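Tokens in:
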């Protein structure tokens, strides 16, 4: 699992992260991010320019489904995919062949 890529994509936009909860043991799928534009200002304790590293056993992310920060044990992550970010619009345009965002 490329944790650097997960961290990068969360910084750029939103990812769908699938992992096993250490509290309940259940499999969860959550839309998460660290991109400031998706996080309410009053819920963002981090200063602009904050980053995290892949060397940590946990990643910190803002869970958009429940509206709070969460720390996810890296070893419990089973899959992820980008759902909005730098390259997402380009990928979607190629998949759908539609001009849905107004770009030529």
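Residues out:
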């Amino acid at each position: 699992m490329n944790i650097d890529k997960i961290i990068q994509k969360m910084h750029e936009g939103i990812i769908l992260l699938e992992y096993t909860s250490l509290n309940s043991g259940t499999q969860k799928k959550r839309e998460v991010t660290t991109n400031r534009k998706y996080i309410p200002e009053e819920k963002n304790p981090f200063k602009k320019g904050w980053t995290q590293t892949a060397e940590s056993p946990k990643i910190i992310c803002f869970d958009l489904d429940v509206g709070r920060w969460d720390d996810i044990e890296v070893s419990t992550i089973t899959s992820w995919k980008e759902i909005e970010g730098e390259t997402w619009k380009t990928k979607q345009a190629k998949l759908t062949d539609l001009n849905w965002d107004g770009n030529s």
